[in-house]
Amino acid sequence: MKKILVTGAFGLVGSELVPALQKKYGQDSVILLSHNKTDNNFKGIIEKGDVSDISNLEGVIKKHNIGTIYHLAGLLSVGSEKNPQLAWQVNVGGLKNVLDLAVKYKNKVFWPSSIAAFGPTTPRHHTPQHTVLEPTTMYGVNKVTGELLCQYYFLKYGLDVRSLRYPGLNGWRAEPGDGTTEYAIHIFYGAIKEKKYSCFLSENTVLPMMYIDDAIEGTIKLMEAPADKISVRTSYNFAAVSFSPKELAEEIKKIDPEFVCIYAPDHRQKIADSWPTSIDDSQARKDWGWQHKFDLVGMTKALYDNIKRKLRK
Fold this sequence. Notes:
By secondary structure, the protein is of the alpha/beta class. It folds into two domains: 3-169 and 210-237, Rossmann fold, CATH 3.40.50; 172-208 and 241-278 and 294-312, UDP-galactose 4-epimerase, domain 1 (Alpha-Beta Complex). It is built from eleven helices and twelve strands. It has helices spanning 14-25, 54-63, 77-82, 84-105, 138-157, 183-194, 212-224, 245-255, 268-273, 282-288, 296-312; strands at residues 3-7, 30-34, 45-48, 66-71, 108-114, 161-166, 168-170, 196-199, 207-211, 236-237, 241-243, 260-263. It has a seven-stranded parallel β-sheet, with helices on both faces. Strands 7-9-11 form a three-stranded mixed β-sheet. Strand 1, helix 1 (14-25) and strand 2 (30-34) form a beta-alpha-beta unit. The longest helix has 22 residues, at 84-105. The protein is globular. The termini are far apart.
C-alpha cells in the first residue's frame, strides 16, 4: 500500500496536517521527514533528513513506498531575508528535488505557495487568481519560482502537483515562528502570559489570514479532488478572513479586558506592506468546493482557548 510523506513535519502546517492525515489514513500510513526537529507528542514513523539531500530523500521514498508527498519544508519570510542563499537552496532546490523524484516514482505532490508571491505592483484588494507576480522578498521570489516549476512539471511530465497560496496561518500546536503574519500567533502568548504584547506591525496593517483548521481541511480537500477539477497548476488563491492587528487585539480584549497591545513596527512592516489586504479565491471555491468555517471571532476564541490549555501543561 502506498504511503504519505510529509516533509517539514513539525512546522506550523505539518504539526496540524500530520494528525489529520493519520486520523484519515492510519498512523503507519504517514511518514514524517524532519531536518532537525522532533516532538515527543507525535506518534508515528519519523525519518531524519534534509530535502536538499536528494539521495537521502530518494531513500525515504523507496523505503516506505511513498505515493503522495506533502512538501512543507522551507524557510519562512523573515528567515529567508536573513539568509537568502539558504532560502534558495531549501525552498527552491528542495522543491526541485521533490519534483524530480516525484516524476521518477510517480508521486502525487502538494506544495504550499504563499501570498508572498504577490508584490507591491499586485492589486492589493481582492487580488485576482491571475495577476502580476513581482515580489520584493527572497521568500516571494522562491514562491513564484516554485509555482512556475510546479506548472512546468505538470505540463512537461504530467506530474499531478497541486498548490495553495497560503495566507497568514494561525495555529497553536507548533511554537510560533518568524513569519511576518505570525504576530497573530505571538499575540496570544503575550496576552495569556503577560496580558500585553508589542506588535511588530502597525495597528492598521490588514492582511489575509486563516485559522489552521480551515487550512488543513482545504489542503486535504484539494488533494482529494478529481484531477479534472484542477484548473490551476501554479497555485490557487486561498482565503478566509482579513483583519488588522488592532482588530485582533480588540477581539482578545473581549476575552481578557486587561490585555494591552502596543505597536512598534520594525523591518517586517515593509514586507507586510508589499502583500495584499484581501484575496479573491473564487476559482478554488468553483473548482473543488473550497469553503472556510472560521471567522475572526471563532478563530480568536479557538486560539486563545487552545494556547491557554497548552501553556498550562
